[in-house]
Design goal:
Helix content is 45%, strand content 16%. By secondary structure, it is an alpha/beta fold. The protein has five domains: 163 residues, Rossmann fold (3-Layer(aba) Sandwich); 150 residues, Rossmann fold; 105 residues, Arc Repressor Mutant, subunit A (Orthogonal Bundle), CATH 1.10.10; 75 residues; 63 residues, Winged helix-like DNA-binding domain superfamily/Winged helix DNA-binding domain (Arc Repressor Mutant, subunit A, Orthogonal Bundle), CATH 1.10.10. A seven-stranded parallel beta sheet has the order 3-4-2-5-6-1-7, sandwiched between helices. Helix 10 links the parallel strand 12 and strand 13. The protein is globular and about 80 Å long. The mean pLDDT is 88.
């Protein structure tokens, strides 16, 4: 408000948005907001518009004419907020318009992206300082929730902030119990955590398939649950979010796509059943619990395989500079982008077909495209798995009669009828890959057959053969494009390796309070043990020799009947869980019992 440069370093849910929204609304002029997250920009613009506040955003995929019109609206339409991606800020048209605007504030969201040491560093952020030249009298506010001390110092330097006021709230969330538990049966532990909870919960997984399967399993156990991932249509996402918020389905099993705008205060549990990629992302996701100040838990359930998997996913599959050049060149060829062209054009792409065409590993390509996204070469819309839809326009007898004269149509049509219920009443999603597996026909043959059925008025067809969208942010220059960011690619890959190592250290460290470990990582050195995390609780639970000996006898008696998992032992001897697990660990440690390949304990 006083025109001073400002840094707001606040935890997730700490109210960063109002730190620039209120001051801007209280003054004449417009606020320029720079954000790397298209989804977050969209959410904030929608939220402001619903409050009657004039706001707009300019992202990739818009033509020159559209951008020009939007800028005119921002300049002459009494708008209060203009949201821009850092890439859009590089356009001469955008810069010239901003220079003429009455700008009361410049807000840089996710400001840690400007630092090479920050999570999700973006080179395009380096050019934000152009706003200093365009609007030299406008104060800058930098906002972030994930800045280590090194990142904070670097951010202030890169934004050329002049003696900024730094407001840093404590990262300590005293009502959240951070737990890490090595378990055999994760879903059993999820059930134990949620079966008596009345409030909302989030269960984080890494894949869309896991989200669906886990949700179905929890529902079968009587825990009302739904799933959420990036491939779900927008209207369906809105519906799922609403039923979760109002408590109809209080448990949401989700990928990391369930994050933007999730500010529900009454979340009692955030559970990760697959390891996150970094402490930064974990702290952000865990921070969605307990915003009402009531007791909440943030739990990671893991096993030894998870450690191998996170290393494979985020380290072994990183794309180096040479592989990135190959992927980028083949991507341009696949989409038929001429040399020197393609900037700000958007293209649908069949991800699996692209990988098969050039014999590329899907995980490496996915990580490579993510790297190109983060380094400002392109923008990747991760809409993988979006299905085609069909509806039968005739009754089953008519369809069967038609199939008698079309053998291929019969094989594919009858398979669809067996797989999908309600397909005569409503447009129903079908999965082409599933049909390919079931019918042993190639996707082109399946598509051609469906189109033939459509032409015969047997079905209504909506065909979607692309499952992702890519917007190019730079013109095609092949190796030269990648050479410009080569140093950043090396730094990015090194950062990813470091993040995984730090996450694994957090998982393995069962001596230091989990809350202390987390806030220390973000530079807070005065935190004291929380008393409620898995480490603190284990230190409180002191069992006598008599208790351990007695439990030891019960366990051995149980195992004499045959091999059992720890879950089966717990269910049969009805003792304190911590006591049983500790006793099992002691028996395992002195080789009195062993563990077989099915994770069952047995007497040697």
């Amino acid at each position: 408000m006083d025109g001073k440069d400002t840094v707001a370093l606040l935890p997730t849910g700490g109210g960063k948005s109002i730190c620039f929204q209120i001051p801007s609304l209280a003054q004449e002029g417009i606020c320029i907001v720079i954000s790397p997250l298209v989804a977050l920009m969209t959410d904030q613009v929608k939220s402001l518009q619903e409050k009657g506040i004039k706001a707009l955003s300019i992202t990739g995929g818009k033509s020159f004419t559209e951008v020009n019109t939007l800028l005119d609206n921002a300049s002459f339409g009494n708008y209060k907020f203009l949201y821009l991606s850092p890439e859009r800020l590089q356009q001469e048209l955008v810069q010239n318009t901003i220079k003429r605007m009455n700008v009361n504030c410049i807000a840089v969201d996710e400001a840690h992206c400007i630092s090479e040491w920050g999570n999700d560093f973006r080179p395009a952020y380096k050019n934000i300082r152009i706003l200093r030249e365009l609007q030299p009298l406008s104060p800058i506010i930098a906002l972030t929730a994930t800045a280590t001390p090194q990142v904070l110092k670097d951010t202030i330097k890169e934004l050329e902030m002049e003696l900024p006021s730094v407001f840093q709230d404590s990262f300590v969330r005293p009502n959240i119990a951070y737990n890490t538990l090595e378990v055999e049966d994760k879903l059993y532990h999820v059930e134990q955590l949620l079966k008596s909870s009345k409030n909302q919960a989030i269960v984080y997984v890494r894949t869309r398939r896991s989200a669906v399967q886990t949700s179905n399993h929890l529902t079968s156990l009587g825990i009302k649950s739904d799933f959420f991932h990036g491939g779900i249509p927008t209207q369906e996402k809105i519906k799922k979010l609403e039923t979760w918020k109002n408590g109809t389905t209080p448990t949401m099993v989700a990928t990391s796509a369930f994050g933007m705008g999730i500010d529900l205060a009454t979340v009692a549990h955030v559970i990760h059943i697959q390891l996150p990629e970094s402490l930064e992302s974990y702290f952000q996701e865990a921070g969605r619990a307990g915003r009402d100040g009531n007791k909440a838990t943030a739990t990671i359930l893991y096993n030894s395989y998870d450690k191998q998997l996170v290393t494979k996913q985020f380290i072994a599959s990183l794309a180096d500079v040479d592989l990135l050049k190959f992927i980028y060149k083949k991507l341009n060829n696949y989409l038929q982008i001429p040399f020197g062209e393609g900037v700000f054009t958007t293209h649908g792409i069949n991800f699996e077909d692209f990988c098969k065409t050039y014999s590329l590993q899907t995980l490496q390509v996915f990580n490579g495209l993510n790297t190109l996204d983060r380094l400002g070469v392109l923008q990747l819309s991760k809409e993988f798995g979006r299905s085609s839809k069909i509806r039968f326009l005739v009754d089953s007898n008519t369809a069967i009669a038609y199939f008698k004269h079309d053998k291929l149509g019969s094989v594919i049509g009858k398979t669809i009828l067996r797989l999908y219920g309600g397909i005569f009443e409503t447009m129903t999603r079908i999965n082409l890959e599933t049909l390919q597996t079931k019918t042993r026909q190639s996707q082109p043959v399946i598509i051609q057959t469906l189109q033939k059925l459509e032409a015969a008025n047997i079905i209504e067809l909506y065909l979607n053969t692309t499952d992702a969208a890519i917007t190019f942010l730079t013109p095609r220059e092949d190796d030269k494009t990648i050479n410009v960011i080569a140093r950043d690619v090396v730094a990015h890959n090194a950062k990813k390796k470091q993040q995984v190592q730090q996450l694994l250290r957090y998982i393995d460290n069962n001596k230091t309070c989990k809350a202390v470990q987390l806030v220390t990582y973000f530079g807070e050195t005065t935190a004291t043990p929380c008393g409620i995390c898995s480490v603190c609780q284990s230190k409180k639970e002191r069992f006598s020799k008599k208790e351990i000996d007695s439990t030891c006898e019960l366990i051995l008696l149980e195992l004499k009947k045959g091999p059992k998992t720890s879950r089966e032992v717990l269910e049969n001897i009805h003792q304190n869980q911590a006591l049983v697990l500790k006793t099992i660990a002691l028996l395992l440690g002195n080789n009195t019992i062993l563990l077989d390949q099915k994770n069952r304990y047995f007497i040697q």
